[in-house]
Design goal:
Largest sheet of chain A: 6 strands, mixed
Shape of chain A: elongated
Number of helices of chain A: 15
Number of strands of chain B: 11
CATH architecture of the largest domain in chain A: 2-Layer Sandwich
Structural class of chain B: alpha+beta
Number of domains of chain A: 2
CATH topology of the largest domain in chain A: Heat Shock Protein 90
Largest interface: A-B, 34 and 42 residues
Number of strands of chain A: 18
Distance between the termini of chain B: 78 Å
Strand order of the largest sheet of chain A: 2-3-4-5-6-7
Structural class of chain A: alpha/beta
CATH class of the largest domain in chain B: Alpha Beta
Strand order of the largest sheet of chain B: 1-4-5-6-10-9-8-7
Distance between the termini of chain A: 125 Å
Oligomer: heterodimer
CATH architecture of the largest domain in chain B: 3-Layer(aba) Sandwich
Helix content of chain A: 25-40%
CATH class of the largest domain in chain A: Alpha Beta
Number of domains of chain B: 2
Chain lengths: ~500, ~170
């Protein structure tokens, strides 16, 4: 009996010990990873927030040529601006040819709502039909988006679509990058030097995401596939060290076609591939590496204030707002309104007032506005002898030049009174006006705003006075109205592309 | 006296029943791990194991640290377990047949649509994910021989599975 119990006990003990002999596990062991670790995205990368990035936002609408365009310039004379403008002009020229109409800037009524300008985050990823809207005739839309702003590097994407919502005739994306530290400009495709290696990684990521298990190497791309990827790289973005490439519509490869999890992207189901730096690093060009390495806030040029160096008045509808008789205590408020709307003006200052507001004169200049000579005491120059005319203008010019640093190369004769003798003594253009708002004549705010907003045409030189309280009050409303009509408010020099004609000038041609 | 005998007999019966029940529980609880422990081999270096049928054989890699457990009285099947004990791959060999039919036979759960991929050297991979996303069920077709596999978990271990499948060598 005791022996049986002992045997039973040994059996149980043996079983327990054997059961405890299961293979040990190694929690530190890690399974293999795919050679290329990337991600498939079904939503576009988070757009760059343009807030805080100083750009000169542009927008045009032209119903004759049937084109709408948005784009942005960087402040200052940046080579990127040339490239962006060339792309926009190319799109307009193509549309003008298709429409058989020569392009000239247009303005509209206040209800056009063109004050909302510049690049819209996410707009270049929208379906082409959405961008083209409901207009029945073939037309062109240029959308823009700031896709990169880090360190000294900046990228702007332009999407050009032509056709109608029902029939898209043309759809092209160009992304232009710049390094403002060197002035280098290149398009998105130029950031990657070896598209074939990128092709392999893009297909690999797509294959793994679709559940592929085969380790058969990705086949080299055909010429068409290579070109297709090159176009897609125009739309690529660098984000937190990853390169995000949109897969072209219809993208596929032999490695993907049999996978149940693979769906070739189409217009309704776009797909992006995100590649880690290790994947695309070797494929980067030198400039691509500069862009990819850029980190931190954009260190590009900050805004000069209200006005920017570049406003092409053959492309956008321009007019010049001029303000006489100041500066005064009202001028800073008017400057604020101009600054907040990136609008420029020309201030014809009286010497006697400028000496009382030297800081205002400096601010006017620092924020990019133009300063002109309005004499020292506001006399009718035609009634003065030559030496008095010269003294009125010279004394004022000396003061304004000293305070502003500007050349002060134009004058406005008080009351608009000018003759050949005054012109000869002055030796510079006499700037008159084509729209007189008569803001000194007791008009109500509404009347003044109505005249100031609705009377200007393209090339108008409009007269107001920054010593009139009513002008100070309506200025924000006037500026908004003019911008809504499509105008770009520029300085006199910009209105004439830097070459103000001699003699008496009332408007730009 | 008779009353005392009955009580003693009842006690023996009760004790026997309790001991039997305890043994039953012990057997049920211990047998599976006993079987696993008794039949599982852990590779100390990279090695291979062979599964075979009457007309074909497949050399299956067993990397160092992996555990390998053949199926009792069935040379055509083997189970591999990863060193962390989390990934298990059940492999089987068939002389021929339709891959999708074989896949349907071995799938322990409903599966999604089938994927077909070239696997190099004229081989083809037919596989599908289980609808719950936990498993990969598939067939490696080589020279009309089918190597079936059920592997899980899928997430995080698919590259390991791909690596292992690529190293399987099949011959007739």
């Amino acid at each position: 009996m005791r022996r049986r119990r002992l045997i039973a006990l040994l059996v149980v003990a043996g079983a327990v010990m054997l059961a405890g002999c299961a293979p040990d596990t190694d929690p530190a062991w890690r399974p293999a990873e795919w050679p290329v670790v990337g991600r498939m995205l079904t939503a576009p990368p988070t757009p760059v927030d343009p807030a805080g990035i100083a750009v000169a936002s542009q927008r045009i609408r032209n119903d004759s040529v049937r084109v709408e365009a948005r784009w942005a310039y960087l402040p200052g004379r940046q080579p990127l601006n040339d490239a962006v403008e060339a792309a926009v002009r190319g799109a307009i020229d193509a549309q003008a040819s298709a429409a058989g109409v020569a392009y000239e800037p247009q303005v509209f009524g206040v209800d056009a709502g063109l004050r909302d300008r510049g690049c819209v985050p996410g707009s270049t990823a929208a379906p082409a039909s959405e961008l083209l809207g409901q207009a029945p005739d073939s037309h062109t839309v240029v959308a823009c988006e700031i896709v990169h702003a880090a360190g000294s590097t900046f990228g702007q994407r332009l999407r050009i679509v032509r056709g109608t919502a029902a029939a898209v005739e043309f759809d092209q994306i160009t992304t232009l990058y710049t390094d403002v530290a060197t002035g280098t400009v290149a398009d998105g495709a130029s950031l990657i030097g070896q598209a074939d290696s990128l092709w392999e990684d893009v297909v690999s990521v797509a294959r793994r995401s679709a559940g592929g298990l085969s380790l058969v190497p990705v086949s080299a791309p055909s010429d068409d596939q290579r070109a297709s990827l090159g176009r897609a790289l125009q739309d690529a973005s660098f984000l937190d060290g990853e390169l995000i490439v949109p897969l072209p519509i219809g993208f596929t490869s032999p490695e993907l076609e049999g996978l149940a999890g693979w769906r070739s992207p189409d217009a309704e189901h776009p797909v992006w591939v995100s590649l880690p730096r290790a994947s695309y690093d070797a494929a980067l060009t030198d400039f691509g590496r500069v862009v990819a390495d850029a980190r931190g806030a954009f260190t590009g040029p900050s805004t000069a204030g209200a006005a920017f160096d570049r406003t092409p008045c053959d492309l956008v509808p321009c007019m010049a707002l001029t303000l006489d008789d100041g500066p005064s205590g009202l001028t800073p408020g008017i400057l604020d309104a101009l600054r907040d709307r990136h609008a420029a003006a020309t201030f014809f200052m009286l010497g006697r007032n400028a000496q009382n507001y030297p800081d205002t004169v400096r601010r006017v200049s620092a924020e990019g506005h133009e300063i002109g000579n309005h004499t020292w005491n506001h006399p009718d120059l035609t009634t003065l002898p030559d030496d008095r005319i010269a003294a009125e203008l010279q004394t004022t010019a000396d003061l304004l030049r000293n305070l502003s640093g500007q050349a002060v190369g134009t004058f406005r004769p008080p009351y608009g009174e000018v003759n050949d003798r005054v012109l000869a003594v002055a030796g510079m253009p006499a700037i008159l006006w084509s729209v007189d708002t008569r803001d000194w004549a007791g008009a109500s705010d509404a009347e003044l705003a109505d005249v100031s907003i609705n009377r200007p045409r393209i090339g108008t030189i409009m007269l107001m006075h920054d010593i009139q309280a009513v002008t100070g009050r309506v200025m924000p409303q006037v500026l908004d109205g003019l911008l809504d009509r499509g105008f770009s408010l520029v300085t006199l020099s910009q209105l004439f592309e830097g070459r103000v004609p001699g003699g008496i000038v009332r408007y730009a041609p | 006296m008779a009353r005392g005998s009955v009580q003693r007999a009842l006690g023996v019966v009760l004790l026997t029943a309790v001991v039997t029940a305890m043994l039953g529980v012990a057997i049920i609880a211990l047998l599976p791990p006993i079987w696993v422990a008794a039949t599982t081999l852990v590779a100390h270096t990279d090695t291979t194991t062979t599964i075979r049928t009457d007309h074909a054989r497949a050399s299956v890699p067993v990397p160092a640290g992996w555990a390998m457990r053949p199926t009792f009285a069935d040379e055509s099947r083997v189970t591999l377990t990863s060193p962390d004990g989390l990934m298990q791959i059940d492999l089987g060999l068939r002389d021929g047949g339709q891959p999708d039919v074989a896949l349907g036979d071995i799938a322990p759960r409903p599966v999604e649509a089938l994927s077909h991929e070239p696997a190099g050297d004229g081989r083809e991979l037919v596989h599908a994910n289980s609808t719950d996303g936990e498993l990969v069920v598939g067939v490696l077709v080589a020279d009309q021989v089918l190597v079936t596999f059920v592997s899980g978990p899928r997430a995080g271990y698919d590259a390991e599975l791909a690596d292992l499948l690529a190293q399987i060598e099949v011959s007739r």
